[in-house]
């Protein structure tokens, strides 16, 4: 395998940013690389052109390149400046990224300024670590993203100085409400530094290692210095720069750096499990070409490096969790209690030998202290988060059209000898979690939101089927463990899930059945009796042992796990983690029993090393999806539950509620951009609407399906020939050109009539339609159609265009409404059928209903606005699209042609055009008519989310 540079020097040259890999001793020098200013093209650099880096602040060292991001034609290099070793596998270190640098590639002046700032920041951190520890620790420091002087100012501004330094208590209300900033996205410490003492954290079952390490740090103030550099010096090449660019750069630093959620190895493929027998990569293939793409999180931003053959700089990183503990077991335990020093103890990570940069040894007894029947074991826990439907709670739920689900995590538990001795068996046990594979949403504005199922039952089934077919190909046999409520708000989605799996099993051939175990966690464990999870374990024990685990011995895979348990609750966080840890504990005991160790016979059953490891895993996955540590973590750590744990969970619920409303919308847009799911236009869209769309949901496919469905439901006369169908924007009130809100509708054009179909996009149903006979069309007007002035894109007169069709009411015009109740419970039969032959009395009733029994006007109108054709959703191979004005002109011309054919004319009289060009709503009129509430609402959204 081509070597990956373990250390890199970054400096600025006249024509580009220089990345110089430092070669290990005894290896040939690695080729330096230049990222050119402006166009950000990547090329090799002759060694005689390397700049002088002898000046202390002219360069800085990094431990790897994460990638290159480009927004508004401005590029930024993202590099790893701090890392910490968290584990070792087969003697090779595994690191977590703890800090990154974002260096502009716009001009030499910008690059020099940023490099000097980064170099000074790293030098101060090293000096601080030296003064604290007595020795430099570049690879192990846990300092935060902010420079020390900025951190001190930020802490003072946040109000810590108002508290007595001897005070060691605070209320939950203070931590959650007044100091809610510490609950923000990717916060390293989710309680304030003064909020919880060490003893309180231990009592509550919280991880002690992170207590107070970075609490109170104002990440934004530190990152803002990076974002405030001049964006471009060349006036001829200046382009509009998104005002959200500084916020994006801060998000990049927090996401990749201070979140401590990205892991990497220079020597191993940590994206693959031991059961795949591929964790040791092939030496003749670059590492980035071997890793599992589902867990390769920086693939998109590394694309330019990989495309130019820069294998030494292409370092894949994985989001998730990696943790490790050693423990002692006795194959022949004494029959009576002995001093506690001989008991099983929890330890921190210990690495065999003297690996450079390894964490210090823990409290596990040295080998010379072990009895002949005792031995050390190593437990390694790896969680891998999929990037296929990546995102945040409430913004990424359920499944997409390709069968990928939100919060899909593969968790592997490995039991080995501390030295990874090949003669000793190495056990691997895999589990997976993921959102319920249905199309559904939940509101972020409720502590107990009701899930709303979207789209038709058939669409849900197809996506569910694709999901399980993919899992079966990858993992083998499957066992579903569903933890949602059997009664209450979660029942509807759980029932639909079960029905889809039952249908899947009915259509499956042979033994490809997927057992479905529904365990109502809340009902079974009500009253904080989480020990009742043992009932689920008893039900799943035989299935667990049937699926088994993988065993590797002498470097060969001698047994492979037959399949996996797929566990879910609504978020796949808290309930899921409790149950998965229970399954893993059972498999641990089973694996050790195969090696001659009976865990039930051990003197000390307080396996805190196991509980803490799984609780840390739950916290990591929860922070990445829901912004806070996992709830029910006190039980996972201590196997005890009391009122303090319940109060802690209340605080976490409030924190999740706050993050869901405030932080997640922009963070979701940033994640989609960094993964390559959307283009940089997503930030312009976000700035306009203060919302984020789901790029996995194909808008074009949804619109095509809607047009097809409307055509089947509303065109009753088989003799009518459909000439076109479009999804347009229209007022939600009849006979007006503006209303609030506007909505997407389907416009059908046949050789006889126009059909305006109002559509329920969640349920894929036609809710109502209006038919206008073409012979009654009297006038068509197209032009500027501005309905809002709250964002610059809304006021673009070239993109905001539409048309108005005026017609004379007549008996040939029809309106129909689907009055049946729309519900997510059960299948909704709402076929509209052929309804064109209703009596005049029924028609009059519908007219009265819509018009409030008022007399119909002489001329009525239908208003349509073209949706934006240029979207941020990244579509490969897409051809040229019509502009908004081209689409409007095309539709108007076709309507006019067919309308004139239907209208009566005197013999010899030439038909006159019925199309005029003019403003529907001009920019000036829109500015006058934009309501105060509309402006206020957008301003509040921008203040909160932007």
From TrEMBL:
It holds the Pfam family hSac2. Residues 116-142, 330-368 are annotated as: Disordered. One of its GO terms (cellular component) is endoplasmic reticulum. GO terms for molecular function: phosphatidylinositol-4-phosphate phosphatase activity. Residues 132-142 have a biased composition (Acidic residues). Residues 347-356 have a biased composition (Low complexity). Residues 116-126 have a biased composition (Basic residues). GO terms for biological process: phosphatidylinositol dephosphorylation. Residues 258-627 form the SAC domain. Residues 697-847 form the HSac2 domain. InterPro entries: hSac2, Inositol_phosphatase, SAC_dom. This is Phosphatidylinositide phosphatase SAC2.
């Amino acid at each position: 395998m081509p070597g990956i540079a373990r250390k890199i020097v970054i400096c600025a040259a006249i024509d580009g940013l220089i990345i110089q890999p430092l070669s290990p001793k005894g290896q040939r020098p690695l080729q330096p690389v230049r990222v050119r200013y402006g166009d950000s093209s990547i090329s090799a650099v002759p060694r005689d052109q390397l700049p002088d880096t002898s000046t202390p602040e002219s360069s800085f060292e990094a431990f790897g390149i994460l990638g290159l991001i480009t927004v508004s034609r401005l590029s930024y290099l993202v590099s790893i400046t701090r890392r910490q070793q968290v584990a070792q596998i087969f003697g090779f270190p595994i690191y977590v990224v703890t800090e990154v640098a974002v260096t502009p590639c716009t001009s030499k002046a910008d690059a020099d300024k940023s490099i000097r700032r980064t170099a000074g920041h790293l030098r101060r951190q090293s000096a601080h670590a030296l003064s604290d520890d007595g020795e430099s620790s570049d690879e192990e420091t846990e300092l935060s993203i902010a420079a020390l002087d900025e951190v001190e100012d930020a802490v003072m501004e946040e109000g810590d100085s108002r508290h007595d330094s001897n005070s060691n208590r605070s209320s939950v209300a203070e931590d959650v409400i007044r100091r809610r900033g510490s609950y923000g996205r990717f916060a390293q410490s989710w309680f304030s530094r003064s909020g919880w003492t060490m003893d309180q954290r231990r009592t509550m079952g919280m991880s002690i290692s992170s207590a107070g390490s970075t609490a109170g740090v104002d990440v934004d103030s530190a990152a803002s210095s990076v974002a405030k550099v001049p964006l471009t010096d060349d006036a001829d090449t200046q382009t509009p720069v998104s005002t959200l660019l500084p916020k994006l750069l801060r998000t990049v630093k927090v996401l990749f750096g201070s979140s401590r959620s990205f892991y990497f190895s220079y020597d191993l493929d940590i994206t693959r499990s031991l059961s795949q027998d591929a964790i040791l990569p092939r030496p003749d293939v670059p590492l980035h070409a071997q890793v599992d793409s589902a867990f390769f999180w920086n693939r998109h931003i590394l694309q330019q490096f990989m495309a130019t053959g820069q294998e030494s700089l292409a370092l894949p990183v994985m989001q998730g969790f990696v943790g490790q503990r050693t423990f002692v077991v006795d194959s022949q335990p004494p029959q009576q209690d002995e001093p506690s020093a001989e008991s099983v103890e929890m330890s921190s990570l210990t690495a065999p030998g003297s690996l450079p940069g390894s964490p210090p040894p823990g409290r596990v007894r040295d080998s010379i202290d072990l009895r002949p029947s005792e031995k050390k074991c190593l437990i390694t826990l790896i969680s891998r988060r999929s990037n296929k439907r990546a995102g945040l709670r409430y913004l990424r739920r359920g499944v997409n059209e390709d069968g990928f689900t939100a919060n899909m995590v593969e968790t592997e538990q490995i039991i080995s000898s501390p030295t990874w001795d090949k003669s000793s068996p190495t056990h691997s046990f895999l589990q997976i979690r993921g959102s319920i594979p249905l199309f559904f949403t939940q509101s972020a504005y409720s502590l107990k939101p009701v899930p709303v199922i979207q789209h038709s039952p058939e669409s849900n089934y197809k996506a569910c089927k694709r999901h399980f077919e993919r899992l079966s190909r990858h993992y083998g046999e499957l066992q579903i463990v569903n933890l949602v409520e059997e009664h209450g708000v979660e029942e509807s989605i759980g029932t639909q899930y079960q029905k889809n799996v039952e249908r899947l099993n009915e259509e499956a051939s042979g033994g490809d059945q997927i057992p479905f175990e529904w365990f109502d966690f809340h009902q079974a464990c009500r009253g904080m009796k989480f020990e009742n999870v043992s009932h689920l374990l008893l039900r799943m024990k035989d299935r667990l042992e049937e699926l088994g685990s993988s065993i590797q011995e002498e470097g060969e895979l001698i047994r492979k796990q037959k399949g996996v348990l797929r566990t879910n609750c609504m978020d796949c966080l808290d309930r899921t983690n409790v149950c998965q840890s229970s399954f893993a504990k059972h498999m641990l005991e089973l694996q050790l029993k195969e090696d001659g160790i009976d865990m039930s016979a051990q003197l000390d059953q307080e396996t805190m090393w196991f509980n803490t490891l799984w609780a840390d895993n739950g916290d990591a996955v929860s922070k990445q999806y829901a912004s806070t540590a996992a709830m029910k973590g006190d039980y996972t750590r201590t196997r005890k539950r009391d009122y303090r744990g319940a109060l802690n969970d209340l605080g976490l619920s409030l924190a999740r509620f706050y993050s869901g409303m405030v932080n997640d919308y922009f963070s979701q847009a940033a994640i989609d951009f960094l993964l390559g799911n959307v283009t940089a236009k997503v930030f312009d869209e976000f700035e306009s609407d203060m919302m984020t769309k789901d790029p996995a949901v194909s808008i074009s496919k949804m619109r095509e399906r809607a047009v097809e469905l409307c055509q089947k439901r509303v065109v009753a006369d088989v003799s009518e020939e459909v000439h076109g169908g479009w999804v347009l924007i229209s007022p939600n009130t009849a006979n007006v050109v503006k209303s609030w809100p506007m909505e997407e509708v389907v416009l059908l054009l046949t050789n006889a009539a126009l059909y305006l179909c109002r559509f329920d996009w969640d349920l894929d149903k036609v809710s109502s339609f209006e038919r206008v006979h073409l012979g009654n069309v009297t006038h068509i007007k197209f032009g500027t159609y501005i309905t809002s002035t709250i964002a610059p894109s809304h006021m673009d007169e070239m993109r905001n265009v539409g048309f108005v069709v005026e017609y004379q009411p007549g008996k040939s015009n029809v309106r129909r409404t689907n009055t049946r109740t729309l519900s997510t419970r059960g299948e909704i039969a709402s076929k509209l059928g052929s309804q064109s032959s209703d009596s005049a009395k029924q028609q009059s009733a519908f007219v009265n209903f819509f018009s409030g029994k008022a007399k119909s006007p002489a001329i009525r109108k239908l208003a349509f606005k073209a949706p934006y054709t240029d979207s941020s959703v990244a579509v490969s191979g897409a051809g040229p699209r019509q502009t908004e004005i081209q689409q409007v002109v095309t539709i108007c011309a076709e309507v006019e042609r067919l309308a004139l054919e239907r209208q009566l004319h005197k013999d010899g009289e030439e038909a006159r055009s019925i199309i005029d060009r003019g403003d529907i709503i001009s920019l000036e009129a829109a500015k006058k008519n934009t309501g105060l509430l509309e402006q206020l609402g957008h301003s509040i959204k921008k203040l909160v989310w932007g």
